Amino acid sequence: MKDSDIKNILMLIGELTGLNIVISPAVKDTITATLENVSVKAALDAILKPNGYNYFVQENIIIVKGIDTEMVGELETVVVKLKYINSDDLSGALEAVMSSRGKLQSFTPLVTSQSTKGASNIIVISDVQENIAHILNMIDQLDVAIPNINIAVRFIETNLDTTRGHGIDWSKAAVQLGGTADTSLAMLDFNNITIATLNPIQLTSALRIMQARGQSKLLSSPQVTTLDNHEAETETVTTVYIEGSTNNSQNPYNQGNQPSQSSSPYGNLLTNQVSEKDIGIKLKVTPRINEGTKITLLVDATVEALLSAAEINTDKPRSTKRTVKTQVTVKDGDTAIIGGLIAENVLENKKFVPIISGIPFFGQIFQSTSIEKEQRELLIFITPNVIN
Q: How far apart are CA 41 and CA 19, in angstroms?
């Protein structure tokens, strides 16, 4: 075909293939083309789209029109039931491939109007016919099963020698593997926080060494299962009620507060308040499966403990908090160790003889006071396993 009228070429295609083709009056052009061993769809795309035309199928009729012309019946609507993902999460990805006339609508079937709406797994898609195939292909690639990952965590606290001034040095602690010492641990050290990775055999040896020393204590060993790239959270806490007094210069009867005591009938008033505080271990882990058997862990851990009773002039207890936020990559089944979270307590020990030590001046002979420093390091062992 050389400098041929586009309408004549389309009619020729209809005669050769037995298809019904209707051409809009706006289609006017001449083209030159050589086509051999191509499908009808490929031929129509090659002839029409480079010249600013388009087509759609209605029942058994091919309607050819201008690309900017909107016609009834050009749009196609499909209903897709998703297997693994939420329709709301899919909307953003599909908008990148949809045309300007395309629309998405999530749908959640409800038995009654009072039913609680859950996660929607049905999506209604409306777009031009030629784009539906691209959209369905993208859904097939995105709507796949998400792997489950089991995360086993051990919080171990160990007492340290105050003369050392640092935690366990994993690079110097020989881990016995079948009678040989293996110190080739993958280690990172930043801001006094040490991260090491151990395979299952090294982990077993390390735990045995800590158990043999007798200075370690298992605080908690939770396990949680989550989806790939989804946050898992576990808490082992105790709720502590803290009572304190606050000054209230306003009239307490305006807000319904009753004063426990007052400095004057119309002056500042002291009111008792009780607040709650969670003390314990909080851990957030987000696992992400990489290529092969590697897993990247986003870790946010916090350990808080009470140190003493209420402080003077504050009426609040003193607590210590150890926090770490980091990322580490391990193999499936290996263990990541986070260490270097060291807390120091000052212990004051008093020894006395009852009754006699209470005698003024003379009783001081029968009492003694010693001050000791205690250092404790928190070690976090995190072991992810992909569940098939």
A: 12
